[in-house]
Amino acid sequence: xxxxxxxxxxxxxxxxxxxxxxxxxxxxxxxxxxxxxxxxxxxxxxxxxxxxxxxxxxxxxxxxxxxxxxxxxxxxxxxxxxxxxxxxxxxxxxxxxxxxxxxxxxxxxxxxxxxxxxxxxxxxxxxxxx
Length: 130
Known about the structure:
Layout: H1 4-24, E1 33-40, E2 46-53, H2 57-69, H3 71-81, E3 89-94, H4 97-118
Parallel strand pairs: 2-3
Antiparallel strand pairs: 1-2
């Protein structure tokens, strides 16, 4: 169980990083990025940041590389917004949850279409005439 203080620190870091990415970061290589989760270590020295990217994999990888190079800037701006004794070192990771969810939905939709195609007309909701 995560202590209440750690939850507050995680949420504050998540909000601050989201604001920094949207308003402060001017790198053209960074596309549409969302901070999905932040976990700060118990000693507040390291923060693992999960990022979700919108767009093709090539653009997502380029965005992640650009953000990795901008970690110093992100850390400095985070330190200005969230007052902690130590500003945590940022470890950026790609969150593939949205991609996985979309793939699962596509598979389910495909299976439903296959199932509907194989059923007789009365089971699919169409009119059945004797």
